[in-house]
Amino acid sequence: MSKLDQLIEQALSDQDKEMLRETRQLGWFALGASQFSGKLGWVTWVIMVVQIALFITAVWTGWHFFAASEPLTALKWGLPSATLVIVATILKTSLMPQMQADRILRELKRVELMIAQKAG
C-alpha cells in the first residue's frame, strides 16, 4: 500500500472503509480467474481451450522434431511446432487488454460508488 493510499484510508469514515474493502483491487490471479465469468466469459473459455490444444500439439510436433535424424524431417516437424507455440502465446496474451480494462472499470465503479454515497 502506498503512502497516498494510507492517507486516503485514514481520512475515510468507517462506512467508507467498508466500501473500500468490498471494492478492493484484485490480485493478478484473482483478476485472471474473473475473466472466466460474466457476459464474455465464454470467449475466455474458448481461447483457453484452443490455446491448450495448440500447446499440446506443439509439444507433440516438437517431440518429433527432436527425434528426427534427417534435416528435412526435422524441418517438417520443427516449423509447425514453432508456429504453434507462437500462436498459442499470442492467444494467451490476447486476454491481457481485457484484464487491464476490467481493472480500470472496477476503479471507476469504486469512484462512482463514493460519489453516490457522498451525494446521497
Describe what is shown at a glance.
This protein has 120 residues and is mainly alpha-helical. The protein is 82% helix and 0% strand.
Question: Topology of this protein?
Answer:
Layout lengths: L2 H9 L2 H9 L5 H7 L6 H27 L3 H23 L2 H24 L1
Helix pairs in contact: 4-5
Task: Walk me through the structure.
This protein is mostly helical. Helix content is 82%, strand content 0%. The chain contains 6 helices and no strands. The chain has helices spanning 3-11, 14-22, 28-34, 41-67, 71-93, 96-119.
**Low-confidence stretches at least 5 residues in length (pLDDT < 50)?**
none
- Sheet of most strands: none
Q: What portion of residues is helical?
A: over 70%
Rounded to the nearest angstrom, the radius of gyration is: 23 Å
Q: What would the principal axes of the Cα set say about the shape? A: elongated
Secondary-structure element series: HHHHHH
Mean residue pLDDT: 84
End-to-end CA span? 29 Å
Portion in strands:
under 5%
Number of strands: 0
Q: What structural class results from the helix and strand content? A: mainly alpha
Number of helices: 6
